[in-house]
Every structure is written in structure tokens, then in C-alpha cells.
Design a protein that fits this description.
The complex is a heterodimer of chains A (256) and B (358). By secondary structure, chain A is α/β, with parallel strands linked by helices. Chain A has helices at 44-51, 74-79, 97-103, 113-118, 122-140, 156-169, 186-203, 214-220, 238-242, 245-255; strands at residues 4-15, 18-29, 33-37, 59-64, 67-68, 82-85, 174-178, 206-210, 223-228, 231-236. Chain A is 39% helix and 25% strand. In chain B, the strands form two sheets. A two-stranded antiparallel sheet of chain B has the order 1-4. The chains are: A alpha/beta (256), B mainly alpha (358). The structure holds adenosine-5'-triphosphate and magnesium ion (MG).
Chain lengths: 256, 358
């Protein structure tokens, strides 16, 4: 039996009076892709924010790699191997593609302030090594032609890809993707799906993916969790979900 | 035609990451350095050194310091002059109270002292941002000069508050004449500018820009926001502190706390805005522009008046200066927020393609 890399246990989260998550539990198996689906406002993004410490749940626990998180902050989540992308692109607009992706490796850099100011020697070696790693990701995601472009000038689809690149640069064990294909055309979606599958296969990265396109979800996920009004209303393989009456009523019916 | 990278194949990432990866840029920098270190000392007059070149360099350093904080790390500060005051008075007191301390060491210690003060005044940035942070730094701007006046120890109990700096002596050699003082500032500013350039192209520089552009995303990829901001305040204040020490020791020779007022802070902020927010070179452009503008205006207005046989009201030039300043700042804020540095970059991009568009 495979290990669970992530265990979300009876998590409840509310903002003032609004309950965003109600007693939600699910597991992510190592090296697997889990999709979270649900109508707008169901609490999907909030769930990701709980997983990487942006929001603190009022109740329940998050157990990552066997360790229960207490008062975890995003920094610690990043350090222990979680990277993510955002629903609304959150790139560093004033920086080039290359610098955005290099920033994703900041936790791996060791040179101190003085060494960075002097640059020659340790810092330069480090920069060059990380550059090599970043170039592999750039090749992998086929964004060589834009590496020096400021991200603000890129079209939406490419920005989403750069954001994925930045997350991958951290070499995460768990990758959280909040609607990575929203607003993309069919071709771009196919590319993105392939990238996610490749990352999962080549590096064994576990993935949680929020996605509205049921075709994509059915194609690439190993397991699906369905949220509605902050509650988990279904869980299973894509096949099971497709045939789950409650899910069809709550979500698939609406989506079609 | 002449400015382009074609035919300059980079064979390693190290080469690609080099400070100036295009040969023409390297030649350009070399020419500037030769000009600054060799030609200018041979050609310029004492007036040029003391009234234009030395203040230009000192202000460049202060603008550079502010630019690291505001342009790169996105934290607005109106306390630049106050931090310069800390540097000036720290250097003075180190020299005064530690007999035989080399003046360069005093400058560095002054920078470090200012860095510590800057970090203390940067703490509010952890909770507030933008306009409110600017107001918090304004507190530094009023508090520090007040404290320097209030506590006599800082000015060695000078009754007027004015301090006269000790001679600038390095290894027994006194930097006294205008050209010597110019060369000293030039050397210090060149080295510090290089270090700043290195910082902004390394991990810390990227962290600054990440915090500036999107702090939530920065935090999620593991950047410690507090630490990053406080380092920005520290490094920026170090630069402003050294600039303040040079302002006192090399430019004016005697200073008083009230000279480091809000006006001066704004002047430096304008240099950053006009020169280019988030650009090391822009800091120099801005300082040059604001140092030279009054002189040019003066010449234009006076010569123009002489030519037309007009009698000018006293003080007309300073009014004209304010008008032109104000106009330019509005122009840059609206039309080209990235300042002269951006205009320069656009020119270079055009040159790269010239004479073949596309
Ligand atoms: N920071 C916040 N403050 C207050 N309420 C919030 C906050 N974040 C989310 N909510 C509320 O929590 C609920 C769930 O929002 P969430 O963004 O998690 O939904 P979602 O499933 O991601 O929706 P969408 O498909 O639109 O992205 C909503 O009612 C939302 O208004
Ligand atoms: Mg969402």
C-alpha cells in the first residue's frame, strides 16, 4: 500500500460568519494526482490555502509527510516541500521569466549577504548552478524563447506556464495547482495537462489540482474530491465520481 | 548596427549572467571609468569638482540607497536625509572619540550605525505599507535631526549645532584639494555601486523585487517577508549613511542637523523618480539631472535675459527651478514611471535593431 503524503483531517475554516470549509477530510497518496472540483465558492482555494499554511483552520489537522502541523506558516510549508500556483496569476510582474523562476529556488541558496555583494566566488558558482537547474525546467516547459522577457508582457497562457515553472523550481514533493488551465484554449490545456502528467511521472511529484474542466479532470487525475458549500460531498476515482448521483446534482448538472 | 549582441555567442550560463554581457556595454563602462578617473581630473576646474561633481556623486549614492529600498524592495521612505544625518554624525563621533581611527573605517562604521537605525525605523513596514509607511518614515525625518540637536553629545556640545569635520586622512595622506576629494568619492561610490548591482542580481535582490511585486506569492515560495524588508532597510540605510558621511566630510566640510531636512529627502526621492525606480544606473541619471538642472536653468535664464536685454526680478531662477522640477516629476510619474533609465534602455533596444527596424 502506498503512503499518504498528505492527510487533511476534519478541517473546518470560517471567515467571520462564512463557513468556507466544514469538517473536510481527504488524503493524497504519494506520487498521485488528486483533483478537487466543485462549484464557485465551494471552498476549493481555501482548502489549498489551508494545506500550505496561508489560512489557519479553526478545527482539524493537516498532516504532511507524517508530521502534524501546528501553526504552520507558508514559509515552513515551502521548506518542507510544498509549492503552488495561484488562481489569479501571482507572478513577480517587474521581473523577467528567468528571475521569476530563479526566485522559486531561493530556499536552496546559501550565499550570505556579503558574499552576494561581492558576487565573485561562492555566489557566482551558486547562481550558475541554479541557473542550470532552471534551464532544465525552461526546456521542459518549452519556454526557452521567452526566458528574458518581463513576465508582464506575456500572454495569459504563458504566464500560467511560468508560474508552474516557478513552483517546479523549488523541486516540491507536493504541488498545489489552483485552476492552472482556467481561461486557456483547448491546445494550451492539452499542453498543460501533459506537463502536469510528466512532472508527476518523471519526478514523482504528488499533485493537488483544482480544475473546472471535467474532461481534463477525468483524463489526468487518479482521485477526485468534490466540494460543495464547504462540505465534501464525494470522493473516488474519476469513473466513480462521474456516476455519483449527488455529485451530478450538485455540480455536473450545473456545469452542463 | 554597432550596438548589438549578434555574433557574440554565449557559451556558458556564467557568461550569460555576467554583469555586462554585451561587449559594447563593457567598452562603454570602461570609457566612462577612464573618463571619470583620468580625463575629468585632468580637465575639470575646481568649481566643477566642488559645486557639481562631488555633490553629484554624493547624491548618486544617497539616491542609490533609496532606490534599493523603494525601487527594488518597494518600501517608500521619506527619511533619506535623516539617515544621511545619522551617517554624518556617526562618522564625526567615531573620528572624535576614537583617536587614530582611519577615516574610511569611520565611514564604514557610520554606514553600519545608520543600517541599525534604519532597521529600527523599518520595523513599522512589517505591518503597514504605502502611504502609511511613508508617514512612519516621516517620523524618522523629524525625530532624528531633533534628537541630534537636543542631545548635545552628538554635536560635541557645539552651541550652534554645527560640526566641522575632521580632515580626511588616509594612510597619512590628506585628501584636501578638490580633485583629491573628487577621486576619493568617486572610488567609494564606484565600489558601492558595484556591490549594489551584485546584490540586486543575486538572491536577495530577487527577494526584494518579489516582495515588492507580490508579497503573498513571495511568502509562499519561502521568502521571509520580514527579514527581506528589514535587510532592505538595513542595506539602504547603510548606503544613505555613507552618503551622509561623504556629504559632511567631502562635500561641505561642516554640517548641522537641520540641514538634513525634508527638502533634502524629497530631492533624493525626485532623483530616484526621474532617474528610474528600480535601476542602479537610474540613480546616477537622476542625481546628475537634478544637480545639473539648476545650473543649466541659471545659464539659460540669465543669458536669455541678457540677450533680450531684460532685467530679471531677484529669485526668478529659483521659482523657475521649482516650476521645471514640478513639471518634470509629474511628467515622469505619468508618462514614464521608470524614468530616464527606461528611456535609455528603449534607446538601446532601438539601437540594437538599427538601422533595420524589426
Ligand atoms: N480571505 C477571505 N476572507 C473572507 N472570505 C473568504 C476569504 N477567502 C475565501 N472566502 C470565502 O470562502 C468561500 C470559499 O471561497 P473559495 O475561494 O475557497 O472558493 P473556490 O471553491 O475556490 O471558488 P472559485 O471556484 O470561485 O475559485 C467563499 O464564500 C468566499 O467568499
Ligand atoms: Mg478558487
Amino acid at each position: 500500500m502506498t503512503e499518504n503524503i498528505l492527510n487533511v483531517n476534519k478541517v473546518s475554516l470560517s471567515f467571520g460568519g462564512v463557513a468556507a470549509l466544514k469538517n473536510v477530510s481527504f488524503q493524497v497518496e504519494e506520487h498521485k494526482i488528486l483533483a478537487i472540483i466543485g462549484p464557485n465558492g465551494a471552498g476549493k482555494s481555501s482548502l489549498l490555502n489551508v494545506v500550505n499554511g496561508v489560512y489557519k483552520p479553526q478545527k482539524g489537522q493537516v498532516i504532511f509527510k507524517g508530521k502534524t502541523w501546528k501553526n504552520v506558516v507558508p514559509y515552513e510549508a515551502a521548506r518542507s516541500g510544498i509549492a503552488r500556483t495561484f488562481q489569479n496569476i501571482a507572478l513577480f510582474k517587474g521581473m523577467s521569466v528567468l528571475d521569476n523562476i530563479l526566485t522559486g529556488r531561493n530556499l536552496k541558496m546559501r550565499a550570505g549577504l556579503l558574499s552576494q555583494a561581492i558576487y565573485l566566488g561562492k555566489c557566482q558558482r551558486e547562481e550558475t548552478n541554479h541557473r542550470k537547474a532552471v534551464e532544465q525546467i525552461i526546456d521542459f516547459l518549452q519556454i526557452q524563447h521567452i526566458r528574458k522577457t518581463p513576465v508582464g508582457r506575456l500572454p495569459y497562457g504563458l504566464q500560467k506556464r511560468v508560474e508552474l515553472a516557478r513552483a517546479l523550481a523549488a523541486e516540491p514533493e507536493l504541488l498545489l495547482l489552483d485552476e492552472p488551465m482556467a481561461g486557456m484554449n483547448v491546445e494550451e490545456k492539452e499542453d498543460m495537462s501533459r506537463f502536469i502528467l510528466d512532472v508527476n511521472e518523471e519526478y514523482g511529484t504528488s499533485v493537488i489540482l483544482i480544475e473546472h474542466d471535467m474532461g481534463v479532470v477525468m483524463d489526468i487525475s487518479d482521485k477526485v474530491v468534490v466540494l460543495d458549500y464547504g462540505k465534501k460531498i464525494g470522493e473516488g476515482t474519476p469513473e466513480e465520481i462521474r456516476n455519483n448521483q449527488e455529485v451530478i446534482d450538485a455540480y455536473l448538472g450545473v456545469a452542463r | 548596427m554597432f550596438y548589438r549582441e549578434s555574433g557574440q555567442l554565449k557559451t556558458s550560463y556564467q557568461e550569460d549572467q555576467a554583469l555586462l554581457s554585451i561587449t559594447q556595454d563593457r567598452i562603454g563602462l570602461l570609457l566612462i571609468l577612464i573618463g571619470a578617473f583620468v580625463l575629468i581630473p585632468l580637465l575639470a576646474s575646481d568649481y566643477w569638482f566642488t559645486a557639481i561633481l562631488i555633490p553629484f556623486l554624493v547624491f548618486s549614492l544617497a539616491a542609490l540607497g533609496l532606490n534599493l529600498l523603494t525601487g527594488y524592495a518597494g518600501q517608500l521612505s521619506l527619511g533619506t536625509a535623516a539617515f544621511m544625518a545619522v551617517g554624518a554624525f556617526a562618522a564625526y563621533n567615531f573620528e572624535l572619540r576614537v583617536p587614530g581611527l582611519p577615516v574610511l573605517v569611520s565611514f564604514i562604521l557610520a554606514g553600519i550605525t545608520t543600517a541599525i537605525v534604519g532597521i529600527a525605523f523599518g520595523i513599522p513596514s512589517l505591518r503597514i505599507r504605502g502611504f502609511y509607511l511613508a508617514v512612519a518614515t516621516l517620523a524618522a525625518q523629524f525625530f532624528i535631526p531633533w534628537l541630534l540637536v537636543k542631545v548635545g553629545w552628538f554635536t560635541n556640545y557645539s552651541s550652534s549645532g554645527v560640526i566641522t569635520t575632521q580632515p580626511v586622512e588616509i594612510f597619512g595622506y590628506v585628501f584636501d584639494s578638490p580633485v583629491e576629494r573628487y577621486l576619493l568619492v568617486l572610488a567609494i561610490v564606484s565600489v558601492l555601486a558595484l556591490l549594489a548591482k551584485n546584490l540586486v542580481r543575486s538572491n536577495i535582490g530577487r527577494a526584494w523585487m518579489a516582495v515588492r511585486d507580490m508579497d503573498v506569492a513571495a511568502e509562499v515560495i519561502g521568502i521571509k517577508i520580514m527579514r527581506t524588508k528589514l535587510i532592505a532597510f538595513g542595506v539602504s540605510s547603510f548606503y544613505c549613511g555613507v552618503a551622509g558621511a561623504l556629504y559632511a566630510y567631502v562635500y561641505l566640510g561642516s554640517v548641522e542637523p537641520d540641514g538634513f531636512n525634508l527638502d533634502l529627502s524629497f530631492r533624493i526621492l525626485f532623483m530616484v523618480i526621474i532617474g528610474g525606480i528600480g535601476s542602479i544606473m537610474g540613480s546616477f541619471f537622476g542625481a546628475a539631472f537634478i544637480t545639473l538642472l539648476p545650473i543649466f536653468l541659471d545659464i539659460i535664464i540669465n543669458d536669455g535675459a541678457a540677450l533680450l536685454n531684460l532685467k530679471l526680478a531677484a529669485g526668478i531662477t529659483s521659482v523657475m527651478q521649482l516650476l521645471v522640477f514640478g513639471g518634470l516629476i509629474i511628467f515622469f510619474l505619468i508618462v514614464e514611471p521608470l524614468g530616464l533609465a527606461r528611456l535609455w534602455q528603449i534607446t538601446k533596444e532601438k539601437l540594437r535593431l538599427w538601422p533595420f527596424p524589426h
